Amino acid sequence: MVFSTGALLLMFLTLLGGARNSRPLNEIYFLQVDTSNIPGAPDLSRWTYWQLCAVVNGKSQCGSSVPDYPFDPPSHETFDTDTNIPAAFIGTNHYYLTSRFSFPFLLIALFFGVVSLFTGFLAMCTRIGGYVSSLVAWIALIFQIISTCLITAVYVEGRNKFSANGQTAKLGAKAFAFMWTAVACLLIACVCYCMGGSVGRKERGYSGREHRRRGFFSSARRPSSVRSNKETAP
Fold this sequence. Notes:
Blueprint: H1 2-16, E1 31-34, E2 44-47, E3 52-56, E4 59-61, H2 94-123, H3 127-164, E5 169-171, H4 173-198, H5 204-220, H6 224-232
Antiparallel strand pairs: 1-2, 1-5, 2-3, 3-4
Helix pairs in contact: 1-2, 1-4, 2-3, 3-4
């Protein structure tokens, strides 16, 4: 349950990064790029799940929040221009679709992660609760891995394209550290829930049959003196 709670905290921080202009949310982003040579763009731009944010004194300053904000520099939702935009972003939906698919997968992972946390209370009382929590945590882990891989792939590729175009770009260390650490925490939680379900398992029925069999054969092997006393008794 501790690892599940830690994973959920990191996932929520990543999800809400950029949603508000206050710490620590204004320090969480996926990609920062020098966009000073792009018409109408801020000097430094940061992409989050909610908005393209300008950078002021090292902190994100975001406008109105838009859920599942896409990574698509030339689109009307971002810069609305092709000037000084890397050619790899022009005329393709690859970055737009990949970045947007990550958001719903993260929401699904969060849902099952919360369910596994609540079923974890049952795991403290029954073994079946441990197995149920493990199953739900595995589902959360699968969707978290998909979301993390998608968002990592699209922004690493985007960073490389901007860098090749002569624009300084760097990944947001906190956002990706949170996402991948959440994967590790969920994996450990899954294993621990399974171990919790298997601890204390006893085959009581089998041991009972063993006792009955031992009782039957032990009666057949009674000492001859006892049997002879019974035969001579009136």
